[in-house]
Design brief:
Layout lengths: L2 E5 L4 H12 L3 E6 L12 E4 L5 H7 L6 E4 L7 H4 L5 H21 L4 E7 L29 H20 L2 E7 L2 E2 L12 H11 L5 E5 L5 E2 L2 E2 H12 L7 E3 L5 E2 H12 L4 E5 L13 H7 L7 H19 L1
Parallel strand pairs: 1-2, 1-4, 2-3, 4-5, 5-6, 6-11, 7-10, 8-13
Antiparallel strand pairs: 9-12
Helix pairs in contact: 1-7, 4-5, 6-8, 6-10, 8-10
């Protein structure tokens, strides 16, 4: 039986990856500071531990795993990443996790390790025009990410690649673009735009209003969790390292996203635009390279995933009240 380790197995993407690997017949260990918040873990073994501690990493890699997935990071949505209040923690905590996990895997002769980087590594100067952002993989340099989160991700990409060059590790790197779906953070400050808007619209009375940060014309693309897992597994099991974008190329404005959710909810609401942390003006996944290298690209319409996510968040809001 093949064995897999999922770091960050209590988080949104990690908990879904545990389920997917179990369906494929893997023996799976998850490790995280906490268990999954919204469902029981399906891992064969789940270790509560702080991956900033090298001894925890050493204990979690107590055997040779066939595949290691490194999702663990100190992260969140714009309200967490772009305020500047959490920069030191974001850089310190995530860098420690990656340093420790690479060392532990190297010492156990684990060859195949996947690292989840982010579209936040792309230069701010290529994302000023909301209608024409440039996020091709080769546009990452000269580097000027718009957040310390992006700088840490870029540093860690280079560290994984250095371990591959110098120590023969088999590294795979994906740059995720706004992954969303049910069982993700939807309140508390770390939620991302789809979940935040779903919550606001679910809580609002028909005919009321919701607040949106910025002018609503900033653009993004959003990828449903099932397609994220498929792209990640195809990359991990390929003979190509990356880095590569894993994201949707169905770009929408934040106002358009809100309108889509209102339509699903059957509500007419007024959008009140207020000041708030925004990030870059435009971002969209460029999928030409992943299609060329892997013969795959995401295909599900955004509205399909948003409908599933809204229904789940609407249920959470009902439970709350």
């Amino acid at each position: 039986m093949k064995k897999a380790l999922v770091c960050g197995g209590g988080g949104f993407i990690g908990s879904y990856m545990v389920k997917r690997l179990k369906k494929e017949g893997f023996w799976v260990r998850g490790v995280d500071l906490k268990y999954p918040e919204f469902a029981e873990t399906e891992a064969d073994d789940f270790m509560i531990g702080d991956l900033r501690d090298p001894m925890v990493c050493k204990s979690s890699v107590d055997k040779r795993f066939d595949e290691v997935y490194q999702f663990a990071a100190d992260m969140g949505g714009a309200g967490f990443v772009f305020t500047g209040d959490n920069d030191a923690d974001i850089m310190h905590n995530s860098a420690l996790i990656n340093l420790n996990m690479l060392e532990a895997c190297f010492r156990r002769n684990v060859k195949r390790i996947f690292y989840s980087s982010s579209a936040c590594i792309y230069p701010e100067y290529n994302q000023m025009d909301p209608e024409n952002p440039n996020c091709t993989e080769d546009s990452a340099y000269p580097a000027t990410p718009d957040s310390e989160y992006g700088w840490e991700k870029l540093f860690s990409e280079r560290m994984y690649l250095a371990f591959q060059r110098n120590y023969g590790m088999d590294v795979r790197i994906a740059r995720y673009h706004n992954i969303f779906g049910p069982e993700g953070a939807w309140q508390g400050g770390r939620e991302k735009a789809p979940a935040a808007l779903c919550r606001k619209i679910a809580e609002a009375s028909d005919g009321g209003e919701i607040e949106i940060w910025g002018d609503g014309n900033q653009t993004r693309s959003f990828l449903y969790i099932d397609e994220c897992l498929e792209g990640t597994l195809q990359l991990t099991r390929s003979d190509w390292t990356g880095p590569v974008n894993i994201g949707s190329d169905e770009m929408v404005t934040i106002d358009q996203l809100a309108d889509m959710i209102m339509k699903i909810a059957g509500k007419k609401l007024t959008k009140e635009h207020i000041e708030g942390p925004l990030g870059v003006r435009g971002r969209n996944s460029d999928n030409r390279l992943i299609e060329k290298k892997l013969g795959w690209r995401p295909s599900r319409p955004l509205e399909e995933g948003i409908e599933k996510t809204f229904k789940w968040i609407e249920e959470q809001v009902r439970k709350k009240f």
